[in-house]
Amino acid sequence: MDIELISIPKIEDPRGNLSVIEKDNIPFSIQRVYYLYDVPSGAERGGHAHKNLKEFLIALSGSFDVIVNDATSEETITLNKPNVGLLINQGIWRELKNFSAGSVCLVVASETFEEEDYIRDFDDFLSYIKLGNLGE
Fold first, then answer.
1. Where in the sequence numbering do the catalytic residues fall?
2. What 3 state SS string does 100-116 have?
3. Is 124 helix (H, G, I), strand (E, B) or coil?
4. Alpha-carbon distance 125 to 7, whole Å?
5. CA-CA distances (angstroms) from residue 74 to 55, 70, 92, 117, 133?
6. H/E/C letters for each residue in 50-89?
7. What is the pTM of this model?
8. From first to last of its 136 residues, what are the pLDDT tens digits of the chain?
């Protein structure tokens, strides 16, 4: 599966830790940054794939599960450390679930928002992957 857990450099200090995301930490140029917070108990986010966009997800606070599917297998990754992120490349279906109280999910993206890049129906995603359209 085309995903990867990536450690972000952590500078430890008695006054508080610091982590930095720079161009050498993730394998794409950052075009967009957004974050999810105040997610109600039991709510789910995601539920889509991207044709071209790559994302790097970090649990800045709290924890949540990321369920990823490449049309052949499914895996659940729990993010709960602010210095470890999950790289999700294009062509991977993702769902975010089980948000803890007070959790914050930071998303760093390789592209600006383009609705045409989204695949929002799982059956459409399976067809898209089966036809070999990835990256077009």
1. 48
2. CCCCEEEEEECCCCCHH
3. helix
4. 29
5. 18, 7, 10, 22, 20
6. ECCCCEEEEEEECCEEEEEECCCCEEEEEECCCCEEEEEC
7. 0.91
8. 799 999 999 999 999 999 999 888 899 999 999 999 999 988 889 999 999 999 999 999 999 999 999 999 999 999 999 999 999 999 999 999 999 999 999 999 999 999 999 999 999 999 999 877 655 5
Side chain identity, residue 64: F
Structure tokens at 128: 């898209």
Residues ≥6 apart with Cβ < 8 Å to 13: none
Q: Which two tokens stand for residue 69?
A: 């599917």
CA distance 55 to 66: 12
121 is written with which tokens?
A: 């129906």
- How far apart are the C-alpha atoms of 102 and 59, rounded to whole Å? 11
